[in-house]
Amino acid sequence: MAFVMVKCCFDSEIPLPDFVESVIQKCTDPGCCCGCCSALRPRYKRLVDNIFPVNPQDGLVKNNMEKLTFYSLSSPEKLDRIGEYLFQRASRDINRRRNGFVVIAMEAMDQLLVACHAQTLNLFVESFLKMIQKLLESSDPQLQILATQSFVRFANIEEDTPSYHRRYDFFVSKFSSMCHNDNSNIDLRDKIRMAGINGLQGVVRKTVSDDLVENIWEPVHMDKIVPSLLYNMQNSRYHVNEAHTPEPIHEERTDPPTLAETCMRELVGRASFGHIRSVLKPVLRSLSVH
């Protein structure tokens, strides 16, 4: 028979005034036996805390996630606070290497992003992108891939209110670097590279569809995006001297070269007459180097 040790959050050596403040802001310990900790927190924090199971392997608590989603739809003005609180929790879990809880937090933000369509969504998106950036900055490749998948979902969502100030410099740089990953594990390397290519494709889609955001066609961006795609395209089996068996035409291939070629075609297709030069210059520069 197993016994589970429970503890009270007030069992601490921290001086009382400071500790009371920390309880109000940070008490999220599922092993706490003291109900007053929960009562001190705002409702949106309690709803967020309840979506996390005691064991991260159990996954997102779906019933409580539905309650959080309903609350977000009923009180859209709380979306920014919900997003910020989820980001804070995930940041702590990343620092503690509790990746299971990080995955749950990211899944919750994905669901809220899809479910909530309101003018206040912009405020939630800021926390969402901070979360994506935090995961991309981690050293764990799986978290980087997870973050990229969430970013791609976000890129395919049409926002009710365009953002006047949002910038994607970090994402262009990070996704481009992922395209050049040289991990010794070939399978993992290909997954990271494909995630980087998908991320660049998402950035292009998001920025081109919104005239109010930064100009993705500026050389500072194209000089990173285009060479990263070409780098993966040059590794295509059709450009290397090795024997291969032709695949059926109808069979789709999912590898970095094929994905990079698809992304490059889309990039050229989205470029207007005035912007096509921004794509061609890096291509010609790359050809002259190689």
UniProtKB/TrEMBL annotation:
InterPro entries, per the entry: ARM-type_fold, EFR3-like_ARM, EFR3_Homologs
Biological-process GO terms, alphabetical: protein localization to plasma membrane
A Pfam short name: EFR3_ARM
Gene Ontology CC terms, in alphabetical order: plasma membrane
Protein family per UniProt: Belongs to the EFR3 family.
Protein name: (California timema) hypothetical protein
